[in-house]
């Protein structure tokens, strides 16, 4: 065993990223003890189904990463319902909320984030991050005829779509001038907005919630334009704040998230950070956080490779999806077109699907968005990762040519050089 391995790995946060770190370490034969400490009482579970399948049907099975028994079988010590309160870097120990402390050789921070709240504490205002939250929202929806969704981002719109399908009258209030303004290209956001409007959702953009009150009759919101919206309850989806308090208190470098290198090492090389709370090096080298399921898995893979001393897996293009009504929307790479970029819209190879290709100043594919075109998106993800330039014929067609696109990923015989060349 190398130095520190006898104290093993302690992972703080038993969510998507922390759970994957623990499982991968055990599955790949890490010889030291692996301890996963999680503030929630459930073993690690996936969050994407919360705003989709679980809100539609609270009886939907829990989306656990693996069955609970698997941790015991793999020799992972689960400390659930326990919060890490402090990190003592000098003594290499973490302090738990039950007064105990645990030694570590390597520490992995995977604490995710907390939903941002409005400055009002009201019973009828809900947020959505955990299984408990979704159960509370579903219980409210059971008794309600209407809901106000505050925030026209992904979580808010998924909640709006799911509750609309459950028959509630839905109003969405978004402070930005359009829905999904943070990372969706304009035509894709417009297609989603149109779909909500067609389903009867009232979408109000460019207005802020100024005040909210509640009484026996329901919840009353006053907006920045002076108008009021009434609903039985509200769901707030205005983003998350990364949970970096522990890291800050023990002196790690943070910049929105915990700053890590490509190996997921923080400013203390024995402390790694993964998932939503890690600020990884972005394309321009500056730290950036990424709040996606894929990023949780990719950063977990990287941290595990670092701990095991293995080669770091090659980079993938960032990828994200959302499901609203029967729209499956996927994004990869850089999806906000800058001044020099260009967006090409095409029919997908699947009937009814649309593809949006983002090009840099020339013909290099830097990002893509797909509406109901998952198969084409998987080619685009690989093209973006490869930094492929698209030939004019492919860009000029009004339909995506998946075969020609795939051919760009296969080296032609002429480009294969003999090893001794
Ligand atoms: C409703 C919803 C829908 C989503 N849908 C999609 C989607 O469709 N597509 C997509 O790509 N992404 C989606 N995401 C995002 C994705 O789920 C997250 O990016 C992912 O869960 C991040 O994983 P994480 O492990 O970093 O954080 P989390 O999963 O949040 O886990 C962090 C865990 O750490 C625990 N913790 C915090 N502090 C401590 C402490 N001091 N001690 C112990 N434990 C602690 C927390 O309780 C939590 O359980 C969705 C997220 C939500 C909330």
TrEMBL record:
InterPro entries: FAD-oxidoreductase/Apoptosis (IPR050446), FAD/NAD-bd_sf (IPR036188), FAD/NAD-binding_dom (IPR023753), FAD/NAD-linked_Rdtase_dimer_sf (IPR016156), Reductase_C (IPR028202). Residues 319-403 form the Reductase C-terminal domain. Residues 9-296 form the FAD/NAD(P)-binding domain. It comes from the Bacteria. GO terms for cellular component: cytoplasm. Pfam families: Pyr_redox_2, Reductase_C. Its cofactor is FAD. GO terms for molecular function: oxidoreductase activity, acting on NAD(P)H. Keywords: FAD, Flavoprotein, Oxidoreductase. Gene3D superfamilies: 3.30.390.30, FAD/NAD(P)-binding domain. This is Pyridine nucleotide-disulfide oxidoreductase.
């Amino acid at each position: 065993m190398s130095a520190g391995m006898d104290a093993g790995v302690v992972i703080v946060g038993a969510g998507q990223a922390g759970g994957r770190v623990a499982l991968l370490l055990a599955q790949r034969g890490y010889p030291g003890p692996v301890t996963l400490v999680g503030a929630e009482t459930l073993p690690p579970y996936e969050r994407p189904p919360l705003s989709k399948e679980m809100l539609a049907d609270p009886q939907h099975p829990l989306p656990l990463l693996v069955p609970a028994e698997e941790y015991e079988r793999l020799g992972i010590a689960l400390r659930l319902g326990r919060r890490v309160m402090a990190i003592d870097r000098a003594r290499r120990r973490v302090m738990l909320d039950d007064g105990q402390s645990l030694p570590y050789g390597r520490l992995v921070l995977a604490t995710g984030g907390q939903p941002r709240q409005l400055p009002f504490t009201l019973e009828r205002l809900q947020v959505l991050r955990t299984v408990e939250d979704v159960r509370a929202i579903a219980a409210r929806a059971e008794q309600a005829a209407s809901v106000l969704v505050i925030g026209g981002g992904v979580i808010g719109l998924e909640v709006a779509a799911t509750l609309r399908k459950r028959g509630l009258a839905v109003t969405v209030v978004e402070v930005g001038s359009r829905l999904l303004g943070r990372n969706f290209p304009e035509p894709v956001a417009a297609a989603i907005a149109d779909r909500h409007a067609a389903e009867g959702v009232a979408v109000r953009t460019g207005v802020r919630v100024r005040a909210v009150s509640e009484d026996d009759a329901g919840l009353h919101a006053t907006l920045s334009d002076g108008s009021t919206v009434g609903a039985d309850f509200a769901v707030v989806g205005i983003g998350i704040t990364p949970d970096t308090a522990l890291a800050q208190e023990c002196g790690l470098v943070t910049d929105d998230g915990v700053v890590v290198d490509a190996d997921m090492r923080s400013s203390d090389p024995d402390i790694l950070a993964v998932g939503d709370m890690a600020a990884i090096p972005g394309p321009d080298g500056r730290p950036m956080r990424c709040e996606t399921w894929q990023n949780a898995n990719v950063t977990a893979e990287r941290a595990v490779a670092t701990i095991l001393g293995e080669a770091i897996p090659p980079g993938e293009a960032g990828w994200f999806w959302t499901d609203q009504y029967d729209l499956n929307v996927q994004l990869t790479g850089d999806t906000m077109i800058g001044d020099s970029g260009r967006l090409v819209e095409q029919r997908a190879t699947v009937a009814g699907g649309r593809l949006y290709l983002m090009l840099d100043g020339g013909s290099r594919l830097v990002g893509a968005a797909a509406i109901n075109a998952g198969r084409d998106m998987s080619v685009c993800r690989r093209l973006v990762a490869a930094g492929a330039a698209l030939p004019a014929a492919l860009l000029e067609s009004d339909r995506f040519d998946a075969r020609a696109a795939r051919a760009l990923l296969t080296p032609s015989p002429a480009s294969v050089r003999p090893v001794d060349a």
